[in-house]
């Protein structure tokens, strides 16, 4: 895919990994629309990268439909969509205060998995109307899972299940959308230093840090942005989930 002037949507782009993706896409020449709940932060990042901020709750069909229409009016039909919006509240199945309420589980699934599908389906509808490039490509969708999808993490039953769902959704939608010239891939990050990580209880942070085989620094949002850039450029990647795992990765010092 070319980047120059391609309309791109980044959910969760006001903060953390989404911000890293938004900055990378803007640097490559995309017209970036940040979809997020956090207006002040989102507007600040958008102003910084010459993009726009669109208030959007990815878990709501109405909100996502309105946001996609706003972005399309401002920039044109979406050619690149990066799903980064997500939450990761910690709660044990059998916690100190009793059994986990079902609502806790549903909320995480609603944002992380259903929110990802919500943007994916609407972005794909935009992409299918775009003219194909010389390789027959019309668009690229990148989702965000987590190594938790493969390994689990303490107090992250809902989170791990939601991210496992994102991996499955990626395989299925890549197969289904290939004929439309749309590629779908996922990045499964390990430990990255973002506000989500900083907000986790110390107990969870410690257990995550203990999974690193060597005292290495956590990933940076701009490194996530580098992987987004490569996934968009590389036409042979489709239906893949690439682990961007701080425990395995060799990072520039
Ligand atoms: P973050 O909290 O810094 O960013 C998440 C963003 O999503 C925030 O700006 C938030 O406002 C937005 N958001 C939350 N709910 C939303 C909703 N309903 N609609 C629209 N926007 C919403 O967190 P982050 O660490 O940058 O996480 C980004 C993604 O990466 C998440 O999906 C997370 O699960 C995943 N991830 C992060 C790590 C890590 O180590 N930080 C590891 C694995 C996976």
Automatic annotation (TrEMBL):
<dbReference type="Pfam" id="PF00106">
    <property type="entry name" value="adh_short"/>
</dbReference>
<dbReference type="InterPro" id="IPR036291">
    <property type="entry name" value="NAD(P)-bd_dom_sf"/>
</dbReference>
<protein>
    <submittedName>
        <fullName>SDR family oxidoreductase</fullName>
    </submittedName>
</protein>
<comment type="similarity">
    <text>Belongs to the short-chain dehydrogenases/reductases (SDR) family.</text>
</comment>
<keyword id="KW-0560">Oxidoreductase</keyword>
<dbReference type="InterPro" id="IPR002347">
    <property type="entry name" value="SDR_fam"/>
</dbReference>
């Amino acid at each position: 895919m070319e980047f120059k002037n391609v309309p791109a949507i980044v959910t969760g782009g006001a903060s953390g990994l989404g911000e890293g993706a938004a900055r990378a896409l803007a640097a490559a020449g995309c017209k970036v629309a940040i979809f997020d709940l956090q207006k002040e932060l989102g507007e600040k990042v958008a102003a910084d990268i010459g993009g726009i901020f669109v208030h959007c709750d990815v878990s709501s069909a109405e909100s996502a439909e309105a946001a996609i229409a706003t972005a399309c009016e401002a920039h044109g039909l979406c050619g690149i969509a990066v799903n980064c919006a997500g939450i990761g509240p910690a709660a044990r199945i059998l916690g100190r205060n009793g059994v986990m309420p079902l609502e806790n589980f549903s909320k995480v699934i609603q944002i992380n998995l259903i929110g990802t599908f919500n943007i994916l389906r609407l972005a794909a509808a935009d992409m299918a109307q775009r003219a194909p490039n010389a390789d027959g490509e019309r668009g690229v969708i990148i989702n965000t899972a987590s190594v938790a999808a493969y390994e689990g993490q303490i107090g992250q039953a809902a989170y791990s299940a939601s991210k496992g769902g994102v991996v499955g959704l990626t395989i299925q939608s890549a197969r289904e959308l290939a004929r439309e010239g749309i590629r779908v891939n996922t990045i499964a990050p390990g430990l990255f230093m973002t506000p989500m990580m900083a907000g986790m209880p110390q107990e969870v942070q410690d257990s995550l840090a203990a999974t690193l085989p060597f005292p290495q620094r956590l990933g940076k949002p701009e490194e996530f942005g580098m992987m987004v850039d490569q996934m968009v450029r590389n036409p042979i990647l489709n239906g893949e989930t690439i682990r961007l795992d701080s425990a395995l990765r060799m990072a520039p010092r």
